[in-house]
Write a structure and sequence with these properties.
The chain is of the alpha+beta class. It is built from 4 helices and 15 strands. The chain is globular. The chain binds magnesium ion (2 copies).
Length: about 260
């Protein structure tokens, strides 16, 4: 599996997939409140995908049972939607992936449930900031390490942990294409960034350590120390001016 550079038509198809992913996030964000289950969030995605004649990137992927991933508090990624009831003060990371016309879009956002602690609110701001900084670093002519290093530096300067065992990825006709996009690294190393390279950039930050473990359900990844985790992700295309975001949120984010 080599590095897959997309042409203009392919990028427009990915933008269509990205736009649907953004719409699903907008609908899910409006529904998030204390008392709502993560299965209800999954149903919103299922209905929106069906309306658009699209399919989930995640449903059935190595047997994953949800249309989205929903990861609460110390859960970092790959949480399975289900009967868990969201509580005031929780944070919930929602990962949405859609296949439209043969191409994937992939974006994650961590949402507050009602009023959250200053610690949680700060984590959300920092993780979104790390994503924006990394997207800006995805400049054609640089190395992939520039993106990875942007996350590591941004988080480190603010005192947050960076999850190292999981990261971003190339994306296109497959959800996961080369290259792997670590959230730490040397800015002068790694794959050369070329115009038309499409990447899912996805920092995962914690309020504590960087170690992770997987729960007995074999999917849900949590912080080993129980600290809070946040996950923000965009699908972007590398340009000479940085990452052009294909999963840009259209409606203003509510929080
Ligand atoms: Mg994702
Ligand atoms: Mg991804």
């Amino acid at each position: 599996m080599g590095i897959n550079i997309k042409n203009g038509r392919e990028i427009e198809r990915m933008r269509t997939a990205g736009r649907l992913v953004a719409i699903i996030h907008d609908r899910i964000e409006r529904a998030i409140a204390p008392g709502v289950t993560t299965a209800e969030l999954d149903a919103i995605a299922r209905e929106a995908l069906s309306e658009a004649d699209a399919t989930s990137s995640f449903l059935g992927y190595h047997g994953f049972p949800g249309h989205i991933c929903a990861s609460v508090n110390e859960e970092i990624v790959h949480g399975i939607p289900g009967p868990r009831v969201l509580q005031e003060g929780d944070i919930v990371s929602v990962d949405v992936g859609a296949i439209v016309d043969g191409f994937h879009g992939d974006s994650a956002w961590t949402y507050p449930v009602g009023r959250v602690s200053d610690e949680a609110a700060g984590l959300l701001v920092a993780t979104e900031g790390a994503l924006q900084t990394a997207v800006a670093a995805a400049v054609a002519g640089r190395r992939l390490g520039a993106v990875s290093n942007a996350v590591e530096r941004y988080a480190g300067e603010r005192g947050y942990g960076v999850v190292r065992e999981y990261g971003g990825h190339g994306i296109g006709r497959q959800m996961h294409e080369d290259p792997h996009v670590p959230n730490h690294g040397d800015p002068t190393r790694g794959t050369p960034l070329r115009q038309g390279l499409t990447l899912a950039i996805e920092p995962m930050l914690t309020t504590g350590g960087e170690e992770t473990r997987v729960l007995a359900d074999k999917w849900t990844v949590v912080t080993a120390d129980g600290s809070l985790a946040a996950h923000f992700e965009h699908t972007v295309v590398v340009t000479t001016e940085g990452g052009d975001v294909l999963t840009e949120r259209l409606a203003p984010v509510l929080h």
